[in-house]
Amino acid sequence: MKATDVRALSADQQQEEILKLKKEHFNLRFQGATGQLENTARFRAIRRDIARLKTIMRENRAKDTA
């Protein structure tokens, strides 16, 4: 997910996307523990997407309060 895509989402949609990614990350951890995980690079991509979403949400909050 690109930053421009994230900025186009509303605050509620950004929260929903974070929850969706956290659930996916949780499921991937279980797949890794049971040896069923095929794409290990997805871990990194999910972590970065969550960080990107949180960063943009923080920027928006700072912009609203300033």
How would you describe what is shown here?
The structure is a single chain. By secondary structure, this protein is an all-alpha fold. Helix content is 83%, strand content 0%. It is built from three helices and no strands. It has helices at residues 3-8, 11-34, 41-65. Helix 2 runs antiparallel to helix 3. The longest helix has 25 residues, at 41-65. It is elongated. The two termini are 27 Å apart. The mean pLDDT is 93.
Task: Provide a compact summary of the structure.
Helices cover 83% and strands 0% of the residues. The chain is built from 3 helices and no strands.
Helices and strands, with pairings:
Elements: H1 3-8, H2 11-34, H3 41-65
Helix pairs in contact: 2-3
Helix coverage percent: over 70%
Judged by helices, strands and strand pairing, the structural class is mainly alpha
Instruction: Report the strand count.
Output: 0
| β-strand amount | under 5%
Q: Sketch the topology as an H/E string, one letter per element.
A: HHH
Weakly predicted, low-confidence segments: none
